Amino acid sequence: MKKQVLFFISALVFFGAEAQTSKYIKGGVLDAVEITSSSTETYASYVPANYDERKKWPVVYVFDPKAAGAEAIKGFISGAEDYGYVVIASNIAKNGDYQTNFRHISRLMNEVNDHFSIDPNRIILSGFSGAARLAAASAVLSKNISAVIGCGASFDVGGSYMPVKNTFMYVGVIGDEDFNYIEMLEGVNYLDMRKFDTELIVFKGGHEWPEEEYISKALRSLSVKYMAKGLQKRDDVLLERYYQVDYEEADRLLKKGDLLYSYDAFETMIENFRFFKDVDPVKDKLKEIKRSNLYKAQLSEYRRIVQAESLYRDEYYSFLPGDIELGDTRNLTYWSEEIEKINDLANSPKMENKKMAKRLRGLLAGLAGAYEKQLIPETHAQNLLFVNILYTILLPEEPAPYLKTVQFATMMGKYDMALYYLEDLLKSGYKNIKELDNLEGIALLRISTEYNDLLTKYDLKTRY
Questions:
Q1: Is residue 9 predicted with pLDDT exceeding 50?
Q2: What sections of 274-350 are H helices per DSSP?
Q3: Per-residue pLDDT tens for 254-295?
Q4: Interhelix angle 236-256/259-273, nearest 10 degrees
Q5: Is the pLDDT of residue 17 over 50?
Q6: Directed axis angle between helix 181-193 and helix 293-326, to 10°?
Q7: Where is pLDDT greater, at 40 or 171?
Q8: Which pLDDT score, from 0 to 100, does residue 242 have?
C-alpha cells in the first residue's frame, strides 16, 4: 500500500489542462470547489489578484484536523497575496488514517495540477496539529515536496513517516502555550541534526492555527530560500523589502525585552540572507544580545523549563495510557498529585512557569481525550469513569466531566460515587436541571431518595 501511495503522489510532476476560472477567483476565496474525479470531495482555493496562468506559481496545500479547509485558508491569504502563492485547502483530508488521507491528497494534487499553473519545484504542504503530522508524512512519501509548514505539531515521531532524508525544508510554527511546544522544539532539533533546512517561529498563544502574520513570515522565509536555491528568480528589490521586514520584527522583539526570540530571529536572518547581502550588521546585533545579562537569564530559564517539562511529558506518556487501560480509580491519587504540581506552577510568579502549566494541562487533557475516543461505553465503562474523574481534577470548572462521571458510576452500580460527584457539581453553582433530567443512563439513580434529597438541598426542582 505504501508503494502505491508513493506512486500516486510521485506522479504529480505531470501537468494537465489550462487553468479554468471556475476553479478560482483572482484575489478571492472559493470555499467548496469540487474535485473533477470525485464529486464528494471539495477544496477551498485562493490565487493572488495578479495570478496569470502563463507563469508557474508556488502552491501551498493546507490541511486542517477537522477538514475545515474553507476556514483554515483564511490565515494564508495575506501571505499568498504579498508573496505570490496559490493556496489550496482540503475539505476532506483530516485527522485519521494516513492511507485514506494519502489517497485524498493524491486526487487533490492531481486536480490542482490539471487546473492551476503550478511550479513543480515549489510545492508546500502545511497543516495544524494532527494535520501538520499528515503534511510532514506526505512530504516524506512524495519526494516532490519542497517545504512543510508545520503548525501546532511536528511530525510522526517514532512512526513509519518520521523524516529521515533531507528532501524538504521545514518551518515549524508553534504557540508558546501550546501543549506540543516541547514536541516542536525537539522535532526541529532532530531535523537540524539530520541537516534539514529548518526554521522555528514561536508566537504568543496556545494550540491554535497561527495568526496570518506568522504564516506570512513562513511564506516570506521560503521565498528567500527559494531564491537562494535558484528555484525562484532573484529579485533584489523584493529581497531588500523582505530583509527590512524581518529586521524590524527582530528589532521589535529586542526592544520589548524578548531577547531570546530576538536572537533567534536575527540568527535566522543571517542564514536566509547571507547569500545576497552583507549580514555583518545582523551579526553585530547578535553580539550585542549575547553580552546582555537579560539574555543570559532568559536562556538559562528556557533551558530549565525545557528540561523540567520534558521530564513531566515523559512521565505522562509512560503512565497515563496504562492507567486508563487499567481503569483503576485508586491510581487517580497519583494524577491528583501531579495536577497539584501543575496548579503550583500556574500560581508561580514566574511567567515561564505559568506557560508550562498551561502546556502540561493541555497535554494531559489531550492525551486523555485521544484515548477516550477509542473507548466504547458499553464495554469500557470503567475506563471512561477513570478518564472523566481525571477531567474533574484537571478541569474542575467544566460540568461535562462531572455529568459523565455520574453516568458511568451509575452504569456500574456505584451510586455513592455518582452522588458524590453530583454534589461536587452542584456545589459549583450548577443549576441546569433540564440537562440533569435528560441525562441518559441514570434512571435508577434519579428515582432514589438520596438523589432527590440532594437536588432539594441545592434548591433544584425534583422530578419525583
A1: no
A2: 280-290, 293-326, 332-346
A3: 999 999 999 999 999 999 999 999 999 999 999 999 999 999
A4: 160
A5: no
A6: 110
A7: 171
A8: 98
231: DSSP letter: S
Which residue is it, cell 547581502?
277
Distance between CA 59 and CA 136 in Å, rounded?
Answer: 16
- Residues 356/311, Cβ–Cβ less than 8 Å: no
Region of residue 313 (left: phi > 0; alpha: psi -120 to 50; beta: else): alpha
Report pLDDT digits (tens) over 51-66: 999 999 999 999 999 9
Check residue 15 and give its pLDDT: 30
pLDDT confidence of residue 143: 83
- In the chain the first and final C-alpha atoms are separated, in Å, by 59
Place of cell 494531559: 364
> Whole-angstrom Cα distance, residue 101 to residue 65?
11
Handedness of CA 420, 426, 427, 430 (dihedral sign): positive
Domains and CATH numbers, the chain: 2-232 (3.40.50.1820), 321-396 (no CATH), 399-464 (no CATH)
Top pLDDT among 8 and 25 is at 25
- 14 — pLDDT class (breaks 50, 70, 90): very low
User: How big is the chain, counted in residues?
Assistant: 464
Q: According to the model, what pLDDT value does residue 306 have?
A: 97
Bridge-based pairing state of the strands 147-151 and 38-46: unpaired
Residue 7 confidence (pLDDT) above 70: no
Rg (alpha carbons) of the chain, rounded to whole number: 26
CA–CA gap between residue 8 and residue 429 (Å, rounded): 57
Q: What is the pLDDT of residue 244?
A: 97
Query: One-letter amino acid identity for 201?
Result: I
Angle at 82 between CA 144 and CA 169, to 5 degrees: 30
Give the CA-trace dihedral at 322, 402, 392, 177, to 10 degrees: 100
**Residues paired with 169 in a beta bridge:** 147
What per-residue string of b and e applies to 212-245 under the rule 16 or more CB within 10 Å gives b? eebbbbbbbbbbbbbbbeeebeeeeebbeebbee
User: What are the Cα distances from residue 115, in Å, to 55, 83, 147, 392?
Assistant: 13, 21, 22, 51
- Residue at grid coordinates 480509580: 329
- Sign of the CA dihedral running 131, 135, 137, 138: positive
Parallel, antiparallel, or unpaired for β 147-151 and 57-63? unpaired
The answer to whether 146 and 187 are in contact (CB under 8 A) is no
